[in-house]
Amino acid sequence: MILIVNSGSSSIKFKMYENKNEHLNILVEGIAERINVDGILKIKFNNQIYEYKDKLNDHLSAVDSILTKFEELNIIENIDNIKGIGFRIVHGGEKIIKPCIITKEVIEIIKRNIKLAPLHNPGALAAITAFKQTVPKAKLIGCFDTSFHTTMPKHNFLYAIPYEYYEKLGARKYGFHGISYDYITSKVAKILDRNENNLNLIICHLGNGASIACVKNGKSYDTSMGLTPLAGLVMGTRCGDIDSSIIDFLIKNTEQTLDDVFNVLNKKSGLLGISGISSDMRDICQAKNEGNERAILAFNIYAQKIADYIVKYANLLEGEIDAIIFTAGIGENAADVRKAVIDYIKIMKLDMDDNLNNKNYYDYLKINNDDSEYKIFKIRTDEELMICQEVQKFITNE
């Protein structure tokens, strides 16, 4: 059995797979949340949802509770049946370029990168420490969101600021959502029956957090997020690309501090800030269809920014594009968004089949018509499965 863990500062999401007939099947999934608050554990097993109130004073007690319930529900007979645990870790910096066994050296790298991911890396470290104590025989594997983007050339990841800030502080574009991009790249290679190393893609990972990746010869060539996930596209509550002088302007012309302004840019901007309604695209689309002007404005700005990045990356790929992909919560499910994005692109011959765009699907679906110069897909991403497959490699190669 392989357990996949995505840990935050006050939550641990988990999904466990078992290998049956050489297929990785989901056995159980759930979340321990409100850690160090009042504690709630939810477990989905055999199409039933179990919910428990527990103190969950810290990540260690949350892990103990998860594993105890696994045994009580007869999900596993013995903790040692968990052969590998894969952790989604946001930031590995420049040093970690692929999934790896979590050693003391790797833990030190994760710690050093807390300054670049203060909201994410501490939670991952807490979960790693807890599972290391409670499942000592399992192989612990780290999969990093930044790893996929370590192939970007320097001219794409450097900022035009004094070079010493990069050399001494690591101030550069890192990019995120890499596990999803890795999964989608492999998936498209299978769909098109192509070698990944000859595959050029533009992948739009559109969720509450959103980014786009330019994949050249199967590797990340550029991406929209930067030093942090704040850069790039308009998102649910994040502003995306802005004139950095806005920060100084707001501090000088309001009573807000630097921390206040960054809180606004991260948590009160994007779709929420423009519309004044919601950060959820479903709410925005509903209000747009009812004629709400600010919802229409938010929707249009959102779609236009995505279209702009697609055109930019098409230029980087010199028009040699095997597919444009929409994925993640909005990309997979919001037909209105996909259509608007494609409609905003005038310089490329892209034609979407409206029936296919609106059609229900399970895994993936090609949604362009025959007149389109480039293939367009909607594909469901699966970061947990991607991590599981990586962990499986380490277990198999023991």
Tell me what the structure shows.
The chain has two domains: 2-144, 2-Layer Sandwich (Nucleotidyltransferase, domain 5); 193-383, Nucleotidyltransferase, domain 5. It has helices spanning 59-72, 104-112, 121-134, 154-157, 163-169, 178-192, 245-253, 258-267, 270-275, 281-289, 293-316, 328-333, 335-344, 354-358, 383-396; strands at residues 2-7, 11-20, 23-33, 40-45, 48-53, 84-89, 100-101, 139-144, 201-206, 210-216, 219-223, 323-327, 364-366, 376-379. With 398 residues, the chain is of the alpha/beta class. The two termini are 15 Å apart. The chain is built from 15 helices and 14 strands. The strands form two sheets. Strands 5-4-3-2-1-6-8-7 form an eight-stranded mixed beta sheet, sandwiched between helices. Strands 11-10-9-12-14-13 form a six-stranded mixed beta sheet, with helices on both faces. The mean pLDDT is 93. Helix 1 (59-72) packs across helix 3 (121-134), helix 6 packs across helix 15 (383-396) and helix 10 packs across helix 11 (293-316).
